[in-house]
TrEMBL record:
SMART domains listed in its UniProt record: Integrin_B_tail
GO molecular function, one term: integrin binding
Gene transcribed to yield this protein: Itgb1_1
Organism: Cardinalis cardinalis
Pfam families: EGF_2, Integrin_B_tail
Name of this protein: ITB1 protein
Annotated Integrin beta subunit tail domain residues: 73-152
Annotated GO biological process: cell adhesion mediated by integrin; cell migration; cell-cell adhesion; integrin-mediated signaling pathway
Coiled coil: none
Cross-referenced InterPro entries: EGF_extracell, Integrin_bsu, Integrin_bsu_tail, Integrin_bsu_tail_dom_sf, Integrin_I-EGF_CS
Top-rank taxon, per record: Eukaryota
GO cellular component: cell surface; focal adhesion; integrin complex; synapse
Keyword terms: Disulfide bond, EGF-like domain, Glycoprotein, Membrane, Repeat, Signal, Transmembrane, Transmembrane helix
PANTHER family the record matches: INTEGRIN BETA SUBUNIT (PTHR10082), INTEGRIN BETA-1 (PTHR10082:SF28)
Length: 152
């Protein structure tokens, strides 16, 4: 019974948190916990303590790796640009397409949120339509709300 149960009459009786004919399947989901606090990043199921990624774009031990995905910064660049500076590719459709995050303006880069806070945080440096750099952070809190801080 792989040390996780007792064999009685050639049948394994598993200890708590183990299942399977040989008690070799852990019911502990801790190894499946992604950095955002979701089981398998919300993109898979935890089976025997291992993630089975159901979204084919995502892989890795907790379904967090995506080779083909745009980074958080590139993905949100156009919306941040139109909300903060009223320009860019989504300028005309900003109010329809770009209201999915809370936005806070800050005076300078050192006023941006810093790593070490409880919510996963991405620091972004992107070029705008005028070929100028702009800086912002993107984070998602435990309620699933997206928060953007952008340097004026």
């Amino acid at each position: 019974c792989t040390g996780n149960g007792i064999c009685k009459c050639r049948v394994c009786e598993c200890f708590p948190n183990f299942t399977g004919s040989a008690c070799d399947c852990s019911l502990d989901t801790t190894p499946c916990m992604a950095s955002n606090g979701q089981i398998c990043n919300g993109r898979g199921t935890c089976e025997c303590g291992t993630c089975n990624c159901t979204d084919p774009k995502f892989q890795g031990p907790t379904c967090e790796m995506c080779q083909t995905c745009l980074g958080v910064c590139a993905e949100h660049k156009d919306c941040v640009q139109c909300r903060a500076f009223e320009k860019g590719e989504k300028k005309e459709t900003c109010s329809q397409e770009c209201m999915h995050f809370n936005m806070t303006r800050v005076e300078s880069r050192d006023k941006l949120p810093q790593p070490g806070q409880p919510d996963p945080l991405s620091h972004c440096k992107e070029k705008d339509v005028d070929d100028c750099w702009f800086y912002f952070t993107y984070s998602v809190n435990s309620n699933g709300e997206a928060n953007v801080h952008v340097v004026e």
